[in-house]
Specification:
- The chain has helices at 9-27, 32-39, 43-55, 121-139, 178-186, 195-206, 253-258, 266-269, 271-283, 289-294, 300-308, 312-336, 351-365, 381-392, and strands spanning 30-31, 59-64, 74-78, 84-90, 94-101, 106-113, 146-153, 156-158, 163-166, 189-194, 215-220, 224-230, 233-235, 340-344, 371-374, 398-401, 404-406.
- The chain is of the alpha/beta class.
Amino acid sequence: MEQPFMGNPSLMKKINLSMVLELIKTRGPISRADIARELGLSPPTVSSLVKSLLEDNLVVEIGLSPSSIGKRATLLKYNPSAGFAVGVYLDGTKMLLGVTDLAGQTVTRSELPVNGSSLKPEEVLTAIRDIVNDVQKTSGVDGNELKGIGMAVAAVTDAATGTILSARYLGALVGFPFKTMLEKSFNVRAYVDNDVYMGALGEKLYGKGRNSENMLFVTVGEGIGVGIILGNRLYRGAHHGAGEMGDMIIERSLIDERGPQGGHLERLCGWDAITEMAKERLKSGKKSLINETSGGKVSADLVHEAARRGDEVALEIVQEVSRNLAIGIANVASILDPDLVVLGGDILSAMDLYLDRIKEELFKILPRLPRIEASELGRNAELLGAAGMAINQMNPLIVVRPGEVVGT
């Protein structure tokens, strides 16, 4: 017979507290009696746990239940205004900063241009401090109400230490311990992770993935990456590098050209690839609206605009990119069997051209087709995922069914 799990009292209290808080967040307004019934806890235990949550201002009493039979129960509700979190998204050209309440609702947001190759850690710290100070001044909140900071970076990152291990566009920040720096500077817990992972978490918490246990978040732009959620858990891999989809090989010849440098799939359907495809076709003498509107400076955006106007060369490029992306997605989906694939990144600006074409290509090659959706959060997915990471770690153990504990 399987022995019941026996934890020490302190651990059991933390788990019970987490379960109660999660139930109030998802099912509130709810009474203490209903919490006890739902979780199988004794009424005195629930009362003690709720008292602790009330003292921390994480839940509030909002009045009595409407029942006219017997004694009316006091209802409890989660208090998202009990604090705020900061989310940061950093890539080679920009830094997005946002402040959210504890429900992930954005309070303020700002964007700064950066040069990733020369960006200094102190500049990142200053930008975060400025937005925290701005929120404190405009909203009157106390600095103690900052609950955590999450940072999404376009780099391979050791999430445990918050250190950037390698970065194509943020070379000056490699090796810097951002987690330690942020925690010392702001006296809160900080979390630093890959931008695609944070984007996947953002979609899972606040976007199209809210009801999905197994999903992929595929970002397409200069680079191509995939954030993987399996069984409600973010999957990072053994070396913090899971999801480097841009390195996928779908043409044997590219191995000889690129070797171990990677970027094989990006050479076929990344934003730079779109530009190169257009240049090659124009160089061969093909007539196109791209040539007429580019002024000699071809870009992916110009290709997409020409495609919307029915240009044959541009439409040919869009179709080829869609086919290559679909093959890459199919390769990942055939192994992991997700129920949802969310597309994000720069491709969102041209989703009218790509979404249906990618679906059509996937229909041809996948025996089990997941839902394919455009990101609901747009370019805020990484930012909200970073803030959500900080918020979630206030309540890291979430029991969703007996025997299953979900975390990030």
